[in-house]
Amino acid sequence: MLASIVTTEWYLVLAAMLFSIGMVGVMVRRNPLVLFMCIELMLNAVNLTFVAFARQNGDIGGQTTVFFVMVVAAAEVVVGLGIIVAILRRRPTATTDDLAELKG
Amino acid sequence: MLDLVWLIPALPLLGFLVLLVLGRKLGDPVAGYFATAMVGLSFLVTVGVFLDLMSLDAEARTEQVTTLFSWVAVGGLHIDLAFLADPLSITMCLFVTGIGTLIHLYAVGYMHGDSRFSKFFLYLNLFAFSMLMLVLGSNMLVTFLGWEGVGTCSYFLISFWHERESAATAGKKAFVTNRVGDWGFMMAMFFAFWAVGSLDYLHINEAAESLSVTTATAIALFAFVGACGKSAQLPLYVWLPDAMEGPTPVSALIHAATMVTAGVYLMCRISPLFEVTADYAGTIIAVVGAVTALFAATIAVSQNDIKKVLAYSTVSQLGFMFLAVGSGAYVAAIFHMVTHAFFKALLFLGSGSVIHGMHHEQDMRRMGALRKFMPITFGTFIVGWLAIAGVPPFSGFWSKDEILLAAYDKSIVLWAVGLVTALLTAFYMTRQVIMVFYGEARWHDAHEEHGAHGDYHAHDTEPHESPWMMVLPLVVLAVLSFAGGFINMPFSHETEKLATWLEPVLHPHETDTAKLPLALAAIAAGLVGIAIGFAVYYFKKLKPVEPKILLDGWGYDRAISNFMGGPGRKAFDAIAWADAHLVDGAVNGTGKLVQATAGKARRVQTGNLRNYAAAVGVGVVLLLTWFVIVRGIL
Questions:
Q1: pTM score, two decimals?
Q2: Which residues in chain B are contacts of A27 at CB distance < 8 A?
Q3: CB burial class (10 A; 0-12, 13-18, 19+) of residue A86?
Q4: Per-residue pLDDT for B535 more than 50?
Q5: HEC string for B587-618
């Protein structure tokens, strides 16, 4: 049975890989949109761990939390995309390195 | 009436506020009459409170506290704005408001035509308010409020004619000198709070017995430093003679009758402390008083300014009061304070009347023969002269005699100094009376000079008698100066009315010394002083001795200026340098250090998103490492 072979550790390793990809992406990529996708990747990696543990423990709480994370992420995407669109309209070629007005 | 005691200071305060808003509109002379009425009403309330207090038992008279509101409540410190109506404070209130009313009325005449007429009365009302707060305050902080208030008003009024440089300087001098004394008062408050945990006089006096000798002595002596400043004793007397730059009603009210007696009042207020203090506390006070009395009396002998004589005389008489306090005769001190308030206010107002009549001439060498031109002023001045010279049955004799008796019990040396001072007092006052009212008229030549200055009175060179509102207070005060002594006659317990009245508050001074010989000695001293005065200045049998050093006040003033201008100045400069470089240096250095650090540290904020992300990532890794490896979780 597949379900018995695929233990929680598998999900955790996958989540760790997804999270690492997302994290490296945030650190090395300069395109705001790609940056954004990387953040989503990290969020969903965390969601995956929640769901995995929820299944292992038979506790619905982890899945509930995931719904909250998704809702908040959706709201964040709306705001974040709005900002990115606004910036790219003024400076179509802008990367995150160019947006350093707040430096000390 | 007792719960209406707050009205006593409130009425002058109301007068002050009204004059502040409407003063100019009311103008000359309505503003003056209004201010007079306010103090007059305050006097009536005081009389009511006094009668109420009389109807109480002697014991109940000491604890009539009226609390208005809680003023300061911080931790263990609770201070109410409260008034203490007891025989001592009400006695003070009676003569402060009574004489205050007379002097307000007098000032309506004296200040007539002044361009800042209403402002003068505004200050006078504010002064009356502050003085009454000082007297009625049930704790040291309320007294201190009044203490500072009278000091401020004194400053305003001394430099009332601030266009004159000397007046402005004199005001500043009074203010600065008083600050030295205020330091002593504050130290006394801190010590009292530290030792007793309260600033209420009732608490302090109750706890006095349980205080250690050192603590009680410290409180008493620091309070005495404060008293020295306010009551112009050595070494802080210098401001009072200069304070004569103010208008004469101010000199009479503030610098003779009321404010300068505040120090003596404070000493009497905390007198139970003196039961506990080391013996030397009383001795110090008595010696300072006696030395000041003699010192100032010698200076008064050579002064030519009519008001300066009276100013030094005031310093000298205040010295007498401190001599009494130091000798443990508090009733005698208060008694002399009251009679002195009568006759010195009378003498000052008389001199003001002379100055007014002489068109602002103050030099006695340019007066003379005024008795024909100013008969009422002359008559009342004579009463004041006999009272201060200690001729029985005038009031000054009775009170001075009691002080000398107490001084004799303390030490025969103090008594001798007091006696010599009494002789000098009689002498210089005789000199003043003769120079002003007798001899030939010396003002004609003076007024020709004045004419050259375009004085608008120049054509009318004859001195004239003053208007009714100036003469009336003179007459009333003359009656009081004559009869004021009868409130405390030393014949039996029955006749010592003031002592009986004050007994719940002030310990009576008990003595076995025979009173008659001392009284005869005091009378003799007064008469000898007068006789010498007549011999020198009237019959001109003896040459006057008026050394220049006495005119300069023993050079004390100059010595202080030289010291402060020389070594003192250098010390202040050094302190200022230390302040600018060491203290400010430390503060500014800290600021600069923070600025420099921040300048370096702000480069961390690159504004580059990926750097922040890296920082967060590294931070997470480090935290994880710490939790897993160091703390061993998992």
A1: 0.77
A2: 610, 613-614, 617
A3: exposed
A4: yes
A5: HHHHHHHHHHHHHHHHHHCCCCHHHHHHHHHH
Interface test mutation site (partner A, options B597, B610, B616, max chain A beta carbons within 10 A): B610
Q: Is residue A101 part of a domain?
A: no
Is the residue at A75 inside a domain? Answer: yes
- DSSP-derived secondary structure for B124-157: HHHHHHHHHHHHHBSBHHHHHHHHHHHHHHHHHH
Residue numbers in B near A83 (CB within 8 A): none
Nearest CA-CA distance, residue A71 and chain B, Å: 23
With an 8 Å Cβ cutoff, is B617 touching chain A?
A: yes
Structure-token match 């201060």, residue found: B388
- C-alpha B129/C-alpha B97 separation (Å) is 10
Phi/psi of residue B82, nearest 5 degrees: -135, 155
User: Is some CB atom of chain A closer than 8 A to the CB atom of B615?
Assistant: no
CB of B260 within 8 A of CB of B254? yes
Domain extent for A26: 2-95
Select from B507, B521, B208 the least CA-distant residue to B332: B507
Distance from CA of B602 to the nearest CA of A (A): 5
Q: Where are the domains of chain B?
A: 346-453+461-551, 562-630
- Note the pLDDT of residue A3: 60
Query: Is 50 exceeded by the pLDDT of residue B458?
Result: no
- Cα gap B291→B309, rounded to integer Å: 18
Q: Is the peptide bond preceding residue B393 cis, with omega within 30 degrees of 0?
A: yes
ipTM of the complex as predicted? 0.81
Single-letter amino acid, residue B135: V
Nearest to A100 among B604, B606, B613 (CB): B606
Could you give the number of structural domains in chain A?
1
Crossing angle of helices B87-110 and B468-483, rounded to 10°: 150
Q: Measured between CB atoms, does B602 come within 8 Å of chain A?
A: yes
